[in-house]
Design a protein that fits this description.
Blueprint (H helix, E strand, L loop, with lengths): L1 H14 L15 E6 L8 E5 L2 H10 L21 E7 L15 E5 L2 E7 L16 E7 L6 E7 L1
Parallel strand pairs: 5-7
Antiparallel strand pairs: 1-6, 2-3, 3-6, 4-5
């Protein structure tokens, strides 16, 4: 039983993206703030984060591996006050490799915010089989007006 728990812990540690990793700003109109492999919702969808208090609440509520005694939000970038922050849940997956590592482009058309992200690499055989609920937060210019968000995967 003890060895099973150790194996499960190792699998979870290998799947979780750490917020302390610096994620580059890929375009001047979009900024990837945080990307996590766990802690999102079963259903895909988005919500706009209104203020720093809500931003920190999301940071503190998700599944993540942290150092004992440290606040998980301390590794997150500062809340951008001059941008609109969006939390996007990717939904549920049966493997642990579904995280967003970059935002290639964003655009708004007909009240839809299109977010272009890299397609997941093709499976090379064996994968870690663990239920994951990845999510990410990103910032766009405050003047972007949209009522839905759609991901576009590209190579």
């Amino acid at each position: 039983m003890k060895s099973l728990l150790i194996v499960c812990a190792l699998i979870l540690m290998s799947c979780a993206a750490t917020p302390s990793q610096k994620l580059p700003v890929m375009q001047k109109n979009a900024e990837l703030l945080v990307s996590q492999g766990q802690g999102g919702t079963e259903e895909s969808g988005f919500r706009i984060i209104k203020d720093e208090k809500e931003y920190l609440a999301v940071a503190n509520s998700g599944f993540q591996l942290i150092e004992e005694g440290k606040n998980p939000a301390s590794n997150y970038p500062k809340f951008p006050k001059d941008k609109k922050v969006v939390l996007y849940n990717l939904g549920g997956f049966r493997s642990g490799s579904h995280t967003i590592s970059q935002i290639k482009n964003v655009s708004v058309k007909d009240n839809v915010l299109y977010v272009e992200v890299p397609a997941a690499p093709p499976s090379g055989g064996m994968e870690i089989q663990v239920i994951s609920n990845p999510w990410f937060m990103f910032a766009v210019p405050v003047d972007y007006q949209f009522s839905s968000v759609q991901l576009k995967y590209s190579k």
